[in-house]
Amino acid sequence: MSGRRSVPWTMLSVSVAAIYAFILGPILITAAVSFNATNRSFFPPRGFSLRWWQGAFSPEWVAPLVFSLQIAGLTALVATAVGVPLAFALNRHRFPGRELVRLITVGPLILPTLVTGIALLQFLSQMGLHEWMGFRALLIGHVVICLPFSVRTIAISLAAMPGGVERAAASLGAGPLGVLRRVTIPLIMPGLFAGAAFAFIHSFTDINLSLFLASPGQRPLTVAILSFLDFGFAPTLAALSIISLVIPLAIIA
Questions:
Q1: Do 71 and 220 contact (CB within 8 A), yes or no?
Q2: Tell me: the pLDDT tens digits for 145-181?
Q3: CB–CB of 59/213 below 8 Å?
Q4: What is the structure's pLDDT at 131?
Q5: What is the distance between the alpha carbons of residues 109 and 199, in angstroms, rounded to a whole number?
Q6: Cα separation of 76 and 199, whole Å?
Q7: Is 125 in contact with 213 (CB distance < 8 Å)?
Q8: Can you give the pTM of this predicted structure?
Q9: Which of 20, 117, 205, 211 is the most buried (most CB within 10 A)?
Q10: 72-118: per-residue pLDDT in tens?
Q11: Of 212, 235, 210, 248, whose CA–CA distance to 67 is shortest?
């Protein structure tokens, strides 16, 4: 009888192990390729060398990496700053057009970022704002596609707040700003941070929208990697891929 019961657990364990191998296998292979001694992407690696990691930290790649970090950091800040009042309005108030505002807010989650990038490119071109291409266009586009993460996580935190806590603080003499600063914000801080983290990661790893809005002198790391792939896959790209993976993982951790 115990043998029969162990069969489903064995099958589940094998399935979970296969899923993890499918997810982590390419990452481990990419990490191994980055240590090749030759300029070809062999697996298993042929020899051991750190020169590809040195190349990954050369000015050619550090500039787009820093640019990506700047865009992602500003996107997280702006998306969170805009997401807080939007989440409060959608969660706490009833007003005409509320559902329309909600649909517009979560719309970027439904539309592919490729479509959003083309639409924003066409809009800037029609408005004669060609000089916005690069940093400003990327910041606007990334805020648009990352705003739903902030709004949703903050709204969930607001909905999960204990009932009557804000009224209790107000009854004890706290003003509206005092209630917001000392009660509401600390209680929704997990949602604030989660929204900012999701916005940062989504912006940092975006390629579809950035491909249309980047300029030659202002390219995120993802666009720079894609452009370099025209010349083939070098072990330097493997090192850069691991770097671009470690940064979001560090934020999540």
A1: yes
A2: 999 988 889 888 888 877 777 777 777 777 778 777 7
A3: no
A4: 80
A5: 12
A6: 5
A7: no
A8: 0.82
A9: 117
A10: 999 999 999 998 888 888 887 787 877 888 888 887 888 888 888 88
A11: 210
* Tokens describing residue 244: 């671009």
What residue has token string 């909600």? 102
SS (H, E, C) the chain: CHHHHHHHHHHHHHHHHHHHHHHHHHHHHHHHHCCCCCCCCCCCCCCCCCHHHHHHCCHHHHHHHHHHHHHHHHHHHHHHHHHHHHHHHHHHCCCCCHHHHHHHHHHHHHCCHHHHHHHHHHHHHHCCCHHHCCHHHHHHHHHHHHHHHHHHHHHHHHHCCCCCHHHHHHHCCCCHHHHHHHHHHHHHHHHHHHHHHHHHHHHHHCCHHHHHHCECCECCHHHHHHHHHHHCCCHHHHHHHHHHHHHHHHHHC
What is the distance between the alpha carbons of residues 124 and 101, in angstroms, rounded to a whole number? 23
